[in-house]
Amino acid sequence: MAQIEYYFSTLSPYAYLAGGRLEEIAARHAAGVIYKPLDIMQLFARTGGVAPKDRHPSRMAYRNQELPRQAKKAEMPLNLQPAHWPTNAAPSSYAIIAAQKTGGGDLGGLVHGVLRACWAEDRDIAEDAVIKDCLEKAGFDPGLADSGLLTGAETYAANLEDAVAANVFGAPFYVVDTGQSFWGQDRLEDLDLHLQGKL
């Protein structure tokens, strides 16, 4: 059974636009998914990337065209300028880490719920109430937002180190235990083909 390490940020619009496709692909191929939320700004700093606020205007102009196109293609609502972005991604990431460790709910649903809260619902994913609501809707104990803080912080830092070691430089990023990596939600079809043995 293939294992996919999924590196992402709860602030990433491209991770949001992936929707539930990773989970659908993993289910088709009986592949496991390990969710690894990380600090995307630290990843950029470590791997030669640039934070959106520091990018050249030409790159941001393209981003502002590409995101709505990808949202339309995926038939997903998208607010190009969310009311609460950027915000602190750590609390929502800690909750996802705690939920993965505890189990019992829909982890993919939780990840998408958090991303949707930011990019389609104009909610602040750094707020305790928002995180607890996302946990509850995905079938997890909302108390994980509090109880998972210490372990979450340690794992969040470890995920960044794992990402750098795995040559990850953006989000979403999918690393398969076959040694193949796929960057971006627009490479999910390639990931699917790889798992089929066609790529």
Topology:
Blueprint: E1 3-8, H1 13-17, H2 21-28, E2 32-37, H3 40-47, H4 57-74, H5 90-102, H6 107-119, H7 128-137, H8 144-147, H9 149-165, E3 173-176, E4 181-183, H10 188-195
Helix pairs in contact: 5-6, 5-9, 6-7
Task: Please tell me about this protein's structure.
With 199 residues, the chain is α+β, with helices and mostly antiparallel strands. The protein has a single domain (3-195), classed as Glutaredoxin (3-Layer(aba) Sandwich), CATH 3.40.30. Helices cover 52% and strands 10% of the residues. It contains 10 helices and 4 strands. The protein has helices at 13-17, 21-28, 40-47, 57-74, 90-102, 107-119, 128-137, 144-147, 149-165, 188-195; strands at residues 3-8, 32-37, 173-176, 181-183. The chain has a 4-stranded mixed beta sheet with strand order 2-1-3-4. Strand 3 and strand 4 form a beta hairpin. The longest helix has 18 residues, at 57-74. The two termini are 17 Å apart.
